[in-house]
Write a structure and sequence with these properties.
about 220 residues; TIM Barrel; 8-stranded parallel beta sheet; binds D-xylitol-5-phosphate; binds zinc ion
Length: about 220
């Protein structure tokens, strides 16, 4: 059986205690830390940038899965790499040249992710699938935690999983938005490898991170 990884989104954490929250996630069995970077322009919300990421790195050995919702993205890639991002994910709409942005991330020895919004088709990333490590399927419109899962994206996951098998590619499929103990199963069955979750991990079962992470991993 394939191993499911959990990438908790710190968007739902207590921002006054982020260092401790990250430590708690590591102790709770998280596989990586999902950092939602929003610019108030590409998405209608504003979060954190490189200095905060840099200071949070000290609190964990887990990889940082940095989801950039910023436009233009290209000129900021190096800042996020220097700050300690291990996976750098961008949206194709936010760069003038997708290949150049992929190559830049690779040249910094970081893993590359491309994210598809609910109404962005696979075609936007298809010719890069052999060059990237991750495809991040948005199952909500990015901007806020706590939104309802858009089940239409399941077909996109199934299609990507099929392409991956047919072409013998190695990219991972990650899903982000509205993941709870039911939608997690639907996503895993469709082919997802990594679940992002904010609300469920931090709020269910009175914030029992370990229990919530373990439950999300169950098929
Ligand atoms: C949405 C973010 C997500 C979000 C997930 O723009 O990219 O990572 O925080 O949060 P939940 O799990 O609450 O949907
Ligand atoms: Zn995200």
């Amino acid at each position: 059986m394939k191993k499911i990884q959990i990438s908790p989104s710190i968007l739902s954490a207590d921002f006054s205690q982020l260092g401790n929250e990250i430590k708690r996630l590591e102790e709770g069995g998280a596989d990586m830390i999902h950092v939602d970077v929003m610019d108030g322009h590409f998405v209608p919300n504003l979060t954190i940038g490189p200095p905060v990421i840099k200071s949070l790195k000290k609190h964990t050995k887990l990889p940082f899965d940095v989801h950039l919702m910023i436009d233009p993205v290209h000129k900021y890639i190096k800042d996020y790499s220097d700050a300690g991002a291990d996976i750098i994910t961008f949206h194709p709409e936010a760069t003038e040249n997708i290949s150049e942005t992929i190559n830049l991330i690779k040249s910094l020895n970081k893993k590359v992710g491309v994210s598809l919004n609910p109404d962005t088709e696979i075609a936007a990333a298809e010719k890069y699938l052999d060059k990237i490590e991750l495809i991040l399927i948005m199952s909500v419109y990015p901007g806020f935690g706590g939104q309802k899962f858009i089940s239409d994206v399941i077909q996109k996951i199934k299609d990507l999983d099929k392409i991956r098998k047919e072409r013998k590619l190695n990219f991972k499929i990650e899903i982000d938005g509205g993941i709870n103990f039911e939608t997690s199963k639907i996503a895993i069955n469709a082919g997802v490898d990594i679940l992002v979750s904010g609300t469920t991990i931090f709020k269910e079962n009175n914030g029992d991170l370990k229990k919530n992470i373990k439950t999300l991993k169950q098929i």
